[in-house]
From TrEMBL, chains A, B:
Pathway: Amino-acid biosynthesis; L-isoleucine biosynthesis; 2-oxobutanoate from pyruvate: step 1/3
SMART domains reported in the protein's UniProt record: LeuA_dimer
CDD domains, per database record: DRE_TIM_LeuA3
EC supergroup of this enzyme: transferase
Annotated source species: Candidatus Desulfovibrio trichonymphae
Taxonomic lineage of the native organism: Bacteria, Pseudomonadati, Thermodesulfobacteriota, Desulfovibrionia, Desulfovibrionales
EC numbers on record: 2.3.3.21
GO molecular function: (R)-citramalate synthase activity; 2-isopropylmalate synthase activity
Official protein name in the record: Citramalate synthase
Keyword Amino-acid biosynthesis appears in the UniProt entry: yes
Sorted UniProt keywords: Amino-acid biosynthesis, Branched-chain amino acid biosynthesis, Isoleucine biosynthesis, Transferase
Amino acid sequence: MHDIIIYDTTLRDGNQAEDVNLSLEDKIKITLKLDELGIAYIEGGWPGASPVDTAFFKEIATCGLKTARIAAFGSTHHPTNSAANDKTLAALIASNASTLTIVGKSAEVHVREALRVTPDRYLDVVGDSVSCLKRAGREVIFDAEHFFDGFADNPDFSLAVLKKALEAGADVLVLCDTNGGTLPQDVAKAVRRIREYLPGTTLGIHSHNDCELAVATSLAAVEAGAVMVQGSVNGIGERCGNANLCSLIPILELKSGGAYRCLPEGRLTLLCGVSNYVAEVANMAPFSRQPFVGRSAFAHKGGIHVSAVNRNATLYEHIPPSTVGNEQRVLLTELAGRGNIVSMARRFGFHLDKDEPVVKGLLSELKDKASHGYDYAAAEASVELLLLRKLGRRGVRDFFHLIRFRVLESKQHNDARPLSEATVTLAVEGATEHTAAFGDGPVNALDSALRKALSGFYPRLQEMRLIDFKVRVLAATDQYKGTGSLVRVLIESADQRSKWVTVGVSCNIIEASWQALIDSVTYKLYKDENENCTKKLDG
Amino acid sequence: MHDIIIYDTTLRDGNQAEDVNLSLEDKIKITLKLDELGIAYIEGGWPGASPVDTAFFKEIATCGLKTARIAAFGSTHHPTNSAANDKTLAALIASNASTLTIVGKSAEVHVREALRVTPDRYLDVVGDSVSCLKRAGREVIFDAEHFFDGFADNPDFSLAVLKKALEAGADVLVLCDTNGGTLPQDVAKAVRRIREYLPGTTLGIHSHNDCELAVATSLAAVEAGAVMVQGSVNGIGERCGNANLCSLIPILELKSGGAYRCLPEGRLTLLCGVSNYVAEVANMAPFSRQPFVGRSAFAHKGGIHVSAVNRNATLYEHIPPSTVGNEQRVLLTELAGRGNIVSMARRFGFHLDKDEPVVKGLLSELKDKASHGYDYAAAEASVELLLLRKLGRRGVRDFFHLIRFRVLESKQHNDARPLSEATVTLAVEGATEHTAAFGDGPVNALDSALRKALSGFYPRLQEMRLIDFKVRVLAATDQYKGTGSLVRVLIESADQRSKWVTVGVSCNIIEASWQALIDSVTYKLYKDENENCTKKLDG
């Protein structure tokens, strides 16, 4: 087994993604998390390029990292300067990072067209830049930009750049597929060629995902002998992103027959948590289909799959989800079979047999509602309530009855804000409660009135917040079309301990929202009562 | 150059993605679009498994596709049946699709554990199933499920399954990496082995993306001799999805040095449009970092990149974006922004100069509204009205003024249908019109009342229909959250001659719908008046 050196660039190349903009605090948080995971190198940014990046290196030095090394990123010196009087190199040294990574051009056309100097002059720039940083006593990583494009075009120049950097003292040479256009077999060929040309050199790979091949090209480079892999958490980065460490690390650790190790023993189970944490801090919606760590990565929807997974999970799972900290989920849809019902019930704590009549009844009710647009795969709390009611379990009583609601929306003149008011009359615990509320829109007014009416009876409802509200207009049918189309509402709610999603469907958005709202409130009340019962039973 | 046969499974395996649930209309729309793109095979679904899938094959037969072949999907017959009395095979034949694709197990452990029959019995099942479909005169594609896992474990059985299917008459054998856990080099090895074992057979590949390698394994299979590639638009599918055709097709066509062709000449530029269209119909947020077709795929953010790209785009772009119908985007500067306004105005028939003050005013108004969620890229009729008003052009007068609207929504008891009623008071052509209407939901009631109030004055409004109504809840902010989140409404309207889309944004869905509705009606009235003027001038 040999170690693959993981070099994370989430904070630098990742931050160049279109929708990412990390603050100093974000960068520190992510660094601490990556250190916990056991990432070897963390590239913090480009000192001098922005105040956040400059401040990062000062701040992180005080954080007492456990094992991660911090790298500062920059470039070879400007061709019109000397190394000694170049601001970029000076800022790198001033960052006090023990590892300095500089990007240098290794494609002749870039030297001529972007830098507008001769190849010979640029070789001196490379040598002088590396020497200057080495004289400052630092580890130096040389990122050879556009290496593969350059190597395909004029291999002599690209190899000369690598040789120059190595002779000047670079500790690692990293081959960059900067534009992300290179295929895996071409990456492998180039890596093998360099190992012949510069035997014994420590080589790294830096891939971009413009062909959806960044993971594949990184693996091809490792197979050909590269030992450092640069990438980012969740694959974020410039344009289509960088090689995704959340995929590369588990592939290398779990699928090499024990040939490679990337993280300290026992850390791989933290991966899913790190992925979610970075998405959260960067304020990005997690990508549900993301391999290994995504919410859907081990979610089974097709009926055949589900019945097989119930027998033996390995039949439809390429690894046990828990090895990367993820979990199996079985989804319920129109495509579902009785197996879906059984495994869903098991998750809610009920043991049902596939042949019990209640299973068949539940399946046909769920399929019928699914065909009318109820998205039970997303709204697990609504499914749980349906199941509990069908099984006649104690605990899901009707906590309240609707007597009447009215919502009044009015607007005067085009430029005025409309006014939304709702009244609700409920029968609750033997009493009749009649109240009213205004709101930001009709659904918000109804939501406020409902909670107002119930809060005196069920004070723990105040713990509950609505954290997401989604509306989808379902495809129009002959019966429902245009502004009268069927609408599906999904509401995600949370209290201190958990989150749950409920659903409603109607051609009337207020009615659809009402269904999802009352499921959400009922679920909270049921959960609280049930918790109390369990506590009593446990006690 | 040889042809790679593209087999699209967006409607079947794609529909098994967690957040996808295609209706019959959605499936028909997507099929027509894929036919335009020139996809060779389109797998429509599993006849008999759901009413939508069964109806699809009837409906699509009447649509007059240009070149695409429709495939129906199913499985080998149930081991307790014979082929002749099996419902699945009967439903496949009854679908009347000219191509029938059946999945069969090709891993011994699945036969024993999921099906619970002996390997020998299952070989008979495979042979009988294929023969039965061939006797019905159809092309048969055999999807060998879990092929690579089975081949690694017990290659003899996996090869025997393939041989049996081939001898029974299967036209194509497709090797499935069902769990998505196989690495590219192992796929290549297996494909080469089968080509030795069954020379001359037409082989296909069906990959899943559980290791973020579905594109890479598909390419490896093609390099090793597979000629059919199964995948989906945007890579949607069960768990982490299928091989992404939006990446595979351009890689094969653009990066093989002319070795492969997937689409008819000239169609590749449609790819980006097809990707967006499918995301739209499936109601999925497009993935901005998606290779080739994503919004960020050719977006340049890093300072070095932008300055180099302005000199020579190929320096930081692996292909010209236009080859796949995408475009370069550079972080919006004020200058680039004014250019956008000028070119937009030109599209609506106005010649503006970049330095006119009105351009600057329009730019800042559009940027401001866009930052509040107005999606002007989608709602061009709303942009055109804004532009016309700002330019003070004749024709966009205010055809009516709102004096007041009220919408009353009421519901009695949980099981009753709610009642929606709207009243509208308008000042129109010097008169005051006050009327009321019921509707399917509050927006529909308001829509009906508005048209009722106007129809006496503008009879041509009766030509206008609302053909689509979309609602998206925008990300919650500190100010707007939960049921009070900002909501964007897009309304598509049509008359005999054209279609137009308008937009409204508010935390109140009725207000947002009202904005989009009045823009829609105003646009129709403006269009009609303008047409009359033009006719008079022409005459």
